[in-house]
Design goal:
single chain; 118 residues; alpha/beta; five-stranded parallel β-sheet; 5 helices; 49% helix; globular
């Protein structure tokens, strides 16, 4: 299983990448929307972990575009701002995680979301 992590906070991306690796995943990291789009064009992903507030765009819009291009993609929206998570839910994303989060909650949400997509 292969994941794309989109977060401009390098420490969060690194932590997510390490956790996914421990759970049997491989991952790529992108700090911006443009980098995520480039990686997505050249790779195959099963999971997207995406922050909402990115330097060059909105993670909710990015997630919607990537999901439209690849409907079997499991998506987890991550944000420290509860309003962002509310917006994500309004447009149909149910897998939303508020920062800070526990690794157990992250793993459970990934497992549930991936199971729903398979």
């Amino acid at each position: 299983m292969h994941a794309l992590i989109v977060d401009d906070d390098v420490s969060i991306s690194l932590m997510l990448s390490r956790c996914l690796s421990l759970w049997g995943w491989t991952s790529d990291e992108a700090p911006r929307v443009c980098a995520a789009l480039d990686l997505f064009r050249h790779g195959s992903y099963d999971l997207l972990l995406c922050d909402v507030d990115l330097p060059d765009g909105d993670g909710i819009s990015l997630s919607g575009a990537l999901l439209k291009a690849h409907p079997s993609l499991a998506v987890v929206i991550i944000s420290g701002n509860p309003e962002n998570l509310g917006r994500a839910r309004e447009v149909g994303f149910t897998a939303c995680l508020r920062k800070p989060f526990s690794l157990d909650d992250l793993q459970a949400l990934i497992d549930l979301n991936c199971a729903e997509k398979s």
